[in-house]
Amino acid sequence: MNRKNIKSVLAKKHKEFVASIKDERVRKLVAKNSIVTGGAIVSMLMKEKINDFDYYFTNKETVFAVTEYYVKEFNRLHMDKSNKLTSRPVAYIEEERVRIKIQSAGVIGENTDESQYRYFEGVPLEEGEDYIEQTIGSILTEADKIDGKILDEETKKKERYRPVFLSDNAITLSNKIQVIIRFYGEPDEIHKNYDFVHCTNYWESATGKLELRQGALESILAKQLSYVGSKYPVCSIVRMRKFISRGWHINAGQILKILMQVSELDLTDVAVLEDQLTGVDTAYFVMLIKALKTKQEKNPEFKITQEYVASIVDRIFG
Q1: What pLDDT digit, counting tens, does each position of 294-315 carry?
Q2: 242 in the same domain as 94
Q3: Under 8 Å between Cβ of 296 and 302
Q4: Domain termination residue (choose one: 204, 223, 242)
Q5: In whole numbers, what is the pLDDT of the chain averaged over residues?
Q6: What is the pTM of this model?
Q7: What is the CA radius of gyration of the chain?
């Protein structure tokens, strides 16, 4: 797909998305301060199916307004008024970061099955805690429900761009929108958190500008992963699996670059490990972190080791 067509697709998608927002203040902020970057532009350039459109925002005000809006929308649509389900998600600001407080599981959504991963959603408090010991057990599904009633297809159609999955990093909306709340800023600032150069093309709503970077285009043409350095190299290693399964290639030198960055990290520090798994919102990793934190809370003298993490990983991943 050429530049003109890509801009047209993104502008149309953005207009439709903005129009779905009921709150006028939030609608204006999103209309003006949005950046679309990542895989969607790559998919269009390669004439492949678009999985989702990754939305970032240029400032904290917009991120918080959007987060607060969709958390309220999620509660309106999905949370049981009888309070039998997990405590309602809440948007808040911690220092310079916008976050979502989600009791117990750490993530919550409509669906328990997303590709090869399973997500938590609608789990009562006691079940969320027991899950640590039970590893991957049954999950109480409250998928597609409004106050205990199944969402019918007509309701889903009316509720376009409804929030279907929340985590501390992102909000997934229906109709292929992923709202990233973990980072914000201008494109160059956002891309400091990126790992592979092919994902760094972007479109901005304020000007309608589509930036296609030469390095990104060369990487896409060759389907060659080029690592540009990231604050989250552990996440990059996990992400490699996805690209390789899609026919991309990576040479030993690029892998070494990632490993050199990983070597500088203390992954026995739970806070560091949790931060490094930013963007990897699988139930498996969420519960790994939860298990490690719980162990340390019960025994402050406990030191996390590679052997202990390996034993938990084997239990969870099988």
Answers
A1: 899 999 888 889 999 999 888 8
A2: no
A3: yes
A4: 223
A5: 81
A6: 0.78
A7: 20
